[in-house]
From TrEMBL:
This is Corrinoid adenosyltransferase. NCBIfam families: PduO_Nterm (TIGR00636). It comes from Fictibacillus macauensis ZFHKF-1. Belongs to the Cob(I)alamin adenosyltransferase family. Its EC number is 2.5.1.17. Residues 3-166 form the Cobalamin adenosyltransferase-like domain. Pathway: Cofactor biosynthesis; adenosylcobalamin biosynthesis; adenosylcobalamin from cob(II)yrinate a,c-diamide: step 2/7. Homotrimer. It holds the Pfam family Cob_adeno_trans. The keyword Lipoprotein does not apply. One of its GO terms (biological process) is cobalamin biosynthetic process. It catalyses: 2 cob(II)alamin + reduced [electron-transfer flavoprotein] + 2 ATP = 2 adenosylcob(III)alamin + 2 triphosphate + oxidized [electron-transfer flavoprotein] + 3 H(+); 2 cob(II)yrinate a,c diamide + reduced [electron-transfer flavoprotein] + 2 ATP = 2 adenosylcob(III)yrinate a,c-diamide + 2 triphosphate + oxidized [electron-transfer flavoprotein] + 3 H(+). SUPFAM superfamilies: Cobalamin adenosyltransferase-like.
Length: 199
């Protein structure tokens, strides 16, 4: 088996059901999902301690799901059977709810960072947000997408925020509050202001 095919030497790439320019908005969208998957893999290398076995298992599951999302986004074939499903979103929501209870209550915006592992997860969070923006742009140009993928990536960034805080908490590392932040979380609810956590 040869790794190279030479079929992309003229700037086009194969997608499910056709070929597109490598800078096509669809290619950008699933390419960013691939980038995100790589960062999740890197983050996993920072979570080898026994205290993170649950997170490592979940992140491995998410890597497989990101492959599903990338496949769905790369499909231009009309009858392609999408793989991403509502169960994937429900799982993330359940885990987010649990992790919010584990970490200390949040009152202000925080800076991405703390421990190295949490910082890597924050990188995942921001790449997920970029992927989400690119999927929205694809949708706005009337291209067919699996709507579950958009919802999943949106929820995934929330999940990353939640586990970044849990990682710091388990390691005994405090989150660093943004020094000019107002009190934006009241009674466990977020005011309607831009933030680095959830939308």
């Amino acid at each position: 088996m040869k790794l190279y095919t030479r079929t992309g030497d003229e700037g086009k790439t194969s997608v499910i059901g056709g070929r597109l320019e490598k800078n096509h908005i669809r290619v950008n969208a699933y390419g960013t999902i691939d980038e995100l998957n790589s960062f999740v893999g890197l983050a996993l290398t920072k979570l080898s301690q026994p205290m993170f076995l649950d997170l490592a298992s979940e992140l491995t599951k998410i890597q497989h799901e990101l492959f599903d999302c990338g496949g769905d986004l790369s499909a231009v074939k009309k009858d392609y059977p999408f793989k991403a499903n509502q169960e994937m979103i429900t799982f993330l929501e359940e885990r987010i709810d649990d992790y919010i209870k584990e970490a200390p209550e949040l009152e202000r915006f925080i800076l991405p960072g703390g421990s190295e592992a949490a910082a890597m997860i924050h990188v995942c969070r921001t790449v997920a947000r970029r992927a989400e923006r690119e999927i929205v742009a694809l949708k706005e140009q009337q291209h067919t997408i699996n709507p579950i993928v958009l919802k999943y990536v949106n929820r995934l960034s929330d999940y990353f925020f939640a586990i970044a805080r849990v990682i710091n908490f388990r390691l005994g590392v405090s989150d660093v509050e943004y020094e000019r932040s107002a009190l934006v979380f009241r009674g466990g609810k977020r005011k309607e202001e831009p933030s680095n956590d959830s939308e």
